[in-house]
Amino acid sequence: MTFQQHQTVIPGDAPGATTVLYSYTMGPQDAPTRVHLQAALHADEQPGTMALHHLLPLLRAADASGQLRTHITGFPSVNPLGLATTSLRHHIGRYDTQTGVNYNRRWPDLYPHIAPALRGKLGPDGRANVLAIRAAVLAWIDSQSPVTAIQRLRLHVLRSAAAADIVLDLHCDDDSLKHIFTSPELMPGLQDLADWMGVAATLTAEDSGGGSFDEVLPTLYRKARLAHPDHPIALGTETATLEYRGRADSFDRLGQADAAGLFGFLAGRGLIAAEPGTRPSAAPAPTPFEATEVLRVDAPGLLAYRVELGEQVTSGQPIADLIAMDGPEAFLERRPIVAGTDGIVLSRVSGKYVRRGDSIAKIVGTTILPTRAGAYLLED
What's the pLDDT tens digit per position in 162-188? Predict the structure, then answer.
């Protein structure tokens, strides 16, 4: 049995402060495929942690019975630093309060750091080239001298992910249907993941603009391939952000279903020698993230939604009314906020008081929107 718990102590930035990061490993160390699972990078998003809470016993049982054909590293709550931050009874787990940086933004662009180390190291074997790139990345990570706790945490987690063939980052939205973010070249390869997860949408982008964790490794291999067109470089890592509904959806019955989906995905890939179960119906085909409207309000007010999650809407259709909270008609006037595209309502906000510029919904369409092409795509 290889199932093990690990505790990594991260020195804090203040006297006497330390943080413990918990992780689990299981499966053969020399397995040809490695999997990295993590949840709650945004520490106030718990549905992914609930899913891993239910998945870990399944993996431990599979390990005990010798069914694991892969090496798995799992971080059930990958951001303990964010778990520690509360203010006035509210958990602030999305942003580092010292720097104001979103925990899932500004991850490093790895290729410029390792490009010099690849000179003369690549050859005609695509898989060998991936291993050379990984070795260069791991060497770069090991050469770093982190100062702050968040720098230490990021490098530790990135080291695990950089060595993996499959990297799944478990998140959630505010009030939402399940969906996936991934890179376009990884589809349709990850359609089986979308099916097992039962998503309402798979949104793809090469660069959503924020340096998100799930884009680090696809960007690395994409840039390596562009820089070395005469050398085959395989897609070294399949990565995706899995959005498990909304922030309030941390329930056992949902976590059990999500864990079963992840187990089925791994078993369906042959990474667990077990019956995966019946594969769910095919999820919708991927669409460019640039075809998803992030609907925002141009004034503060109180929202009164007219549509439900999953509802099909058309351009110009009212999505919600915005009730004025100032001006001559304060608390009397209401005006419609309309969709700018045809598509399904993927997400809404749970807090109905909104400020000017706030996003209130995502509408997944199929036509790239002029205002989204080349733009910063995240909410943030």
Answer: 999 999 999 999 999 999 999 999 999
Q: Give the C-alpha separation, 39 to 191, whole Å.
A: 21
Please give the angle made by the CA atoms of 213, 354 and 313, to the nearest 5 degrees: 75
Q: Tens digits of per-residue pLDDT, 258-283?
A: 999 999 999 999 999 999 999 999 99
Q: Are 288 and 205 in contact (CB under 8 A)?
A: yes
Tell me how far apart the alpha carbons of residues 203 and 200 are, in angstroms, rounded to a whole number: 10
- What's the half-sphere exposure (Cβ side, CA atoms, 13 Å) at 184? 9
The amino acid occupying position 95 is: Y
Q: In this structure, is the dihedral angle defined by the CA atoms of residues 129, 131, 133 and 139, taken in order, positive or negative?
A: negative
Cα distance between residue 260 and residue 254, in whole Å: 10
Q: Which of 273, 274, 264, 262 is nearest to 52 (CA)?
A: 262
Identify the three-state secondary structure at position 81: helix
- pLDDT of residue 1 exceeding 90, the answer is no
For tokens 């795509």, name the residue: 377
The torsion angles phi and psi of 168, rounded to 5 degrees, stand at -120, 125
- Candidates 196, 214, 199, 202; CA nearest to 259 is 196
What DSSP letter does each residue of 236-260 carry, written as one string? --EEEEEEEEETT---HHHHHHHHH
What is d(CA 41, CA 49) in angstroms, rounded to the nearest whole number? 10
Q: How far apart, in Å, are the Cα atoms of 104 and each of 25, 112, 244?
A: 23, 20, 16
| Strand ordering across the sheet containing 318-323 | 334-338, 318-323, 301-305, 353-354
Domains and CATH numbers, the chain: 4-285 (3.40.630.10), 289-364 (2.40.50.100)
Sheet of 166-173, strand order? 4-11, 18-26, 71-75, 34-39, 166-173, 238-246, 179-182, 201-204, 287-288
Instruction: Count Cβ neighbours within 10 Å for each residue of 135-147 and write b for 16 or more, e otherwise.
Output: bbbeebbeeeeee
Question: Which positions ≥6 away from 85 have C-beta within 8 Å?
Answer: 43, 91, 92, 93, 97
Q: What percent of the chain has pLDDT over 70?
A: 100
The alpha carbon of residue 205 and the mean position of all alpha carbons in its chain are separated, in whole angstroms, by 13
- Average pLDDT for the chain: 97
